[in-house]
Design a protein that fits this description.
Structural class: alpha+beta
CATH architecture of the largest domain: 2-Layer Sandwich
Largest sheet: 5 strands, antiparallel
CATH superfamily of the largest domain: PAS domain
Radius of gyration: 22 Å
Mean pLDDT: 81
Strand order of the largest sheet: 2-1-7-6-5
CATH topology of the largest domain: Beta-Lactamase
Low-confidence stretches: 225-233
Length: 233
């Protein structure tokens, strides 16, 4: 059952008041626990997520986002602001963020080239998170780096009682490798890989490799306990 609207409005007001950037002193404020809870929720999602205030400051970037944004990623953080690493792509990113903050427009955007190309979802939120600027805060979501994360495969393998070799084969299947490629990676015969695949289908009650990979891909995302320090606001 959903919460009554007045309660939800109160929570949004409290969240906006606490998240509106005022410096380190806010951490002891009345609603600091609400902010920490929201940050923990974002950090438990294995997609890159960033919360950007109406004045363009990155309020929080979750662990997945910080992990993905390495030196070859098309996005970077500069002085708490999100920018495209390629100057030619900066206008498109700036326009999309501005449209979300000022007009409440949603947008899907692709940045980068070749293997570094990533998709972004830019969604306006019904609060500003700023003491200085009205408008919409923005939730920016990065596309997943791969179809299935190794942590999800590992959890699935333990739940189904798979052997280490079967887990290795399942991981490779989720990466899109064919049996011949898996055999080469593992240094075994293709017949051995096919035997592992047969056992996988038996243990998971799947009729095909496609069904098996789909079953793993639809699992809720898991994040590792080895997290890098989050962006402090």
């Amino acid at each position: 059952m959903s919460a009554p609207e007045p309660i939800m409005n109160t929570a949004l007001i409290a969240l906006e008041s606490e998240l509106a950037y005022r410096g380190p002193e806010r951490r002891g404020a009345e609603n600091a626990g609400l902010v920490r809870l929201m940050a923990c929720v974002l950090d438990e999602v294995d997609y890159g997520l960033m919360l950007i205030s109406a004045d363009g400051l990155v309020v929080h970037a979750n662990h997945a986002a910080l992990r993905e944004m390495g030196s070859h990623h098309p996005l970077e953080l500069r002085s708490r602001r999100l920018r495209a690493r390629d100057p030619q792509e900066q206008p498109a990113l700036a326009d999309a963020l501005e449209a979300a903050r000022r007009r409440g427009a949603r947008c899907l955007l692709n940045l980068g080239g070749a293997e570094a190309r990533v998709g972004l979802s830019i969604v306006p939120l019904p609060l500003a998170l700023s003491n200085h600027t009205s408008g919409n805060a923005v939730l920016l979501t990065l596309q997943r780096a791969q179809l299935v994360e190794k942590l999800s495969v590992g959890a699935f393998a333990r739940a189904r009682g798979l052997s280490q070799r079967e887990e290795e084969v399942l991981t490779a299947l989720c990466e899109g490798l064919r049996p011949t490629q898996i055999a080469e990676r593992m240094g075994v015969a293709v017949a051995t890989v096919r035997s592992h695949v047969h056992n996988l289908k038996e243990k998971t009650h799947c009729h095909s490799m496609v069904e098996l990979v789909k079953q793993v891909a639809l699992l809720p995302p898991l994040v590792t306990a080895l997290k890098s320090p989050g962006l402090q606001s």
